[in-house]
Structure formats: C-alpha cells, structure tokens
C-alpha cells in the first residue's frame, strides 16, 4: 500500500550476506539510504560488508542474485512453468500465479499475529484511496491489462480498497478462522521471481536497539550521543570519527550537543549503523523512562565496515562474521576498540523524541509503525508497500562447523519498510523488534528465502 512522503524513524538493519557486492543497505528510521533515517540497516550486512546497508548513497545496483545458500527442503519447491496469462512483471522481476497449497507451512502459522500489521497498512491504503484522487482505479486496471503490478501509491490503494474495507469491518480482534477465510477468499498468491526466473533469495534482519543511558557523564557512562553540530551544513564533509574523538576543534563544536551518555562505545556504533534506537534511563529512585533516538544527519564521510576490517585482521573468517562475533572481539580486545571504530569514518547525529507507547515500533517507509516478527523491508520496485507476503525461510542460528538442522521460519508478514541494501525481487529484511534478543537474532540473520505476494483478486 502507499508509502508516506516523509521518511520513517530509524530502527534497524545491517543487511546482506558476508560477501562483497550483491547488496547494499537500507533506510526507514534506521538509516538506509544515508544511514537510515528511520528503521536502520540489516545488521549482518552493514557491519560485515565494505558496502553499507543504509548509511551511504551508492548507485543502485542491478538486480543480481545473492550468493548460493543452502536451502532446506521446507523452503524448496520447484516452481511450475507459467503461461503469460499467469505472470505479472515488475521492474525487479515477475510475479507468477500460485496456489495456496504452494505456500510452505501455510496451515501452521497463527495468522492473527500478523493482523495488527495488516490493519495498519490497510488504514494507510484507505486514507490514500479516500484522498480525492480518482486516477487510482484506472492505474490499477491498466496494470492488470498490461500484465504488470501497479506499483504507484494510488494504484495500490485502489487495488486494496475493497479488501481493506473488509479488514476494517472485521475489527481489531478477529478469530483465526476469520483471518484465514478473508485472505483465501479475497487474495491470490503470486510467487515472486527474479527476471531470470530465480525463486531463491536472501533474508537479513534488523531491529531497534534498546540502550541503557545516562543524562549526565558518569564514571561508567563516558560515550556521548551527539545532536547535529551547528556548522554541519556549512562544512562538508565534517570531521571523521577519529577526528571527533581526538581533535579539540571537533570536540569544541560538539560541546553542549550531548543528548545522553552510553557505557559502551560498541552501543554507539550499533545505533549509528541502525540509524535509530531507544534510550532507557534509570532515575536515582529506580524509576525508568524510555525515549526514542531518531536519525538527524551524518558527517558526510564514507562508511567503512568494521566487520570487513576484522576479517582482514584475522579476527575471524567471513563465514563466522556477525554482530555477536564483533562484540565478542571488542570485549576480548578493549585496547584495540578505538582503533577498530576509527576504521568507520562515518559518524551519525541524532535527535531525541518522546516515546509515549514503548510497545509501538519505529515507523517504516510506508509511514506506519513496524510490528516485530511481522514487518519486513523489501525492494519497493518488486513488492508494493502494504502487501501481505508469505515468507519461507529458516531461523538464524549461531555459526557452527557442524550446524544443526535448519528450523523453518514460515509466516505471514507485511511489506512496510525498505532500505538501500534491500535490492532485488526475492529480497527481504526481517524486523525482529527491540531488546537484546532482537539484536542477537538480527545480527545472525543471513538466510535462504522464498516469497509469495498475496494480492487482491
């Protein structure tokens, strides 16, 4: 469904495989195109790759397939050949008509868990459809007539109008049977393929960091989070990360710009890569408060991957590289952390925003709050915002020379975000939410992927 004209808050991701060129990073509150202004980057990619998942503005690469990944039987399903009448094209690939029985695990998912995400996207679509623009119906009809997927916001809103009215009529607490019946009666599954017919792709993960912070510098909290300096617009590029840490002129320009203080420099790097996060403050009386940290700008210096640098230093192999592995190296080598951080010359500035309801996620590119475990970021040239998507992948697991059998990750999600590293037809970034568990899972997510778009009949 249609996207918002303003960017979403930052939240997450460092996306891409630990190989070199296929993917860059994304945005939405977490710094995608220029370090996600809202959602962030796929954690695995931004930290590991030399190409940033969301904190740079490289040219969009062409749709290239990800490196081969071992795809478990639960994800593999040889696609049948399709006639022209069963295919719709997109700028990134094509949609091929499928059957509900083709969706791995369709009968096992608790679909009501995705209802809040679908409801938010439908509210957005209905607002656009009722905004007075009458061209949407014609655009949607033209897309069907020409065998394409109508990607414009008005065409999408028109296509979803009747279905979303039914979603609104059902209300916020449907039964499992109601959701399943609605989806199967009103929607048609379409298998998503690349232009070359590949059905396998890449799933990465992102999240919204939750960091313990202090309002003042203390013996423990010595790492500042900075608001934008006054001369940022007039001095481009601004000082590098290393210069900010060492030059008196840079430090003077940031004096008084401290939003809060962290105890761990790795936490600052993490939230700068993600592009947004949450700050938790504990008052002397034990009272806790949480605010949101939103992307405000950066120093216009190039992003450099600390993960790639650590691989080159022999800290671990590319296959072992992950955010948990980087954190572990930092704990074991505290005397070299400053050296490692200086490798990434980019430095991100923030602004603090209120967080009235901590249960609500950061806003994604569609302009709606993200739902943990049910929102994904996609390439909007392949899947329109607001589209329900059936995701077939596997759960991320710690690296092992003898990995255990893969556990299926098969569920209904909604396309509500995007990112500069999220490029390609079969490509998604999975929003894990916030907190420590989310960080670990997002940092390990580099999984095989298949996708089906669920679109109104």
TrEMBL record:
Name of one Pfam family that matches: MltA
GO cellular component, one term: outer membrane
GO molecular function: hydrolase activity, hydrolyzing O-glycosyl compounds; peptidoglycan lytic transglycosylase activity
GO terms under biological process: cell wall organization; peptidoglycan catabolic process; peptidoglycan turnover
Assigned keywords, A-Z: Cell wall biogenesis/degradation, Lyase
Catalyzed chemical reaction(s): Exolytic cleavage of the (1->4)-beta-glycosidic linkage between N-acetylmuramic acid (MurNAc) and N-acetylglucosamine (GlcNAc) residues in peptidoglycan, from either the reducing or the non-reducing ends of the peptidoglycan chains, with concomitant formation of a 1,6-anhydrobond in the MurNAc residue
Ranges of compositional bias, category Pro residues: 58-81
Location of the region described as Disordered in the Swiss-Prot/TrEMBL record: 1-25, 57-88
EC number(s) recorded for this UniProt protein: 4.2.2.n1
Enzyme class, spelled out: lyase
InterPro entries documented for this protein: 3D_dom, MltA, MltA_B, RlpA-like_sf
Protein name per Swiss-Prot or TrEMBL: peptidoglycan lytic exotransglycosylase
Superkingdom, natural source: Bacteria
């Amino acid at each position: 469904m249609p996207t918002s004209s303003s960017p979403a808050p930052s939240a997450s991701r460092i996306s891409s495989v630990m190989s070199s060129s296929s993917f860059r990073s994304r945005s939405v509150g977490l710094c995608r195109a220029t370090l996600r202004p809202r959602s962030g980057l796929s954690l695995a990619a931004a930290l590991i790759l030399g190409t940033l998942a969301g904190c740079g503005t490289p040219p969009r690469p062409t749709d290239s397939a990800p490196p081969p990944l071992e795809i478990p039987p639960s994800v593999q399903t040889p696609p049948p050949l399709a006639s022209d009448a069963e295919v719709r094209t997109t700028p990134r690939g094509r949609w091929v008509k499928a059957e509900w029985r083709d969706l791995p695990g369709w009968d096992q998912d608790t679909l009501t868990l995705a209802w809040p995400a679908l409801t938010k996207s439908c509210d957005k679509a209905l607002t656009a459809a009722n905004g007075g623009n009458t061209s949407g119906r014609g655009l949607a009809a033209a897309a069907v007539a020409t065998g394409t997927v109508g990607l414009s916001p008005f065409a999408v809103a028109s296509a979803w109008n009747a279905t979303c009215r039914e979603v609104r009529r059902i209300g916020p607490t449907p039964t499992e049977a109601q959701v399943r019946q609605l989806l199967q009666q009103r929607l048609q599954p379409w298998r998503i393929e690349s232009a070359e017919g590949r059905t396998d792709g890449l799933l990465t993960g992102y999240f919204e960091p939750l960091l313990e912070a202090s309002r003042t510098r203390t013996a423990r909290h010595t790492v500042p989070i900075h608001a934008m300096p006054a001369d940022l617009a007039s001095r481009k590029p601004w000082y590098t990360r290393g210069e900010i840490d060492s030059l008196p002129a840079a430090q003077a320009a940031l004096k008084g710009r401290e939003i809060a203080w962290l105890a761990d420099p790795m936490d600052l790097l993490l939230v700068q890569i993600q592009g947004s996060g949450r700050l938790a403050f504990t008052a002397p009386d034990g009272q806790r408060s949480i605010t949101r940290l939103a992307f405000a700008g950066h120093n216009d210096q190039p992003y450099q991957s600390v993960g790639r640098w650590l691989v080159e230093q022999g800290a671990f192999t590319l296959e072992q590289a992950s955010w948990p592995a980087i954190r572990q190296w930092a704990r074991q080598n505290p005397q070299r952390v400053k050296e490692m951080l200086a490798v990434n010359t980019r430095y991100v500035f923030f602004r603090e925003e209120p967080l009235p309801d901590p249960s609500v996620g950061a806003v994604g590119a569609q302009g709606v709050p993200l739902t943990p475990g049910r929102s994904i970021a996609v390439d909007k040239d392949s899947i329109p915002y607001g589209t329900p998507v059936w995701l077939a992948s596997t759960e991320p697991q710690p690296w092992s020379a003898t990995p255990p059998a893969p556990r299926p990750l098969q569920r209904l999600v909604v396309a509500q975000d995007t990112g500069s590293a999220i490029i390609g037809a079969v490509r998604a970034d999975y929003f894990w939410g916030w907190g420590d568990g989310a960080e670990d899972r997002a940092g390990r997510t580099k999984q095989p992927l298949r996708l089906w778009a669920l679109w109104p009949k």
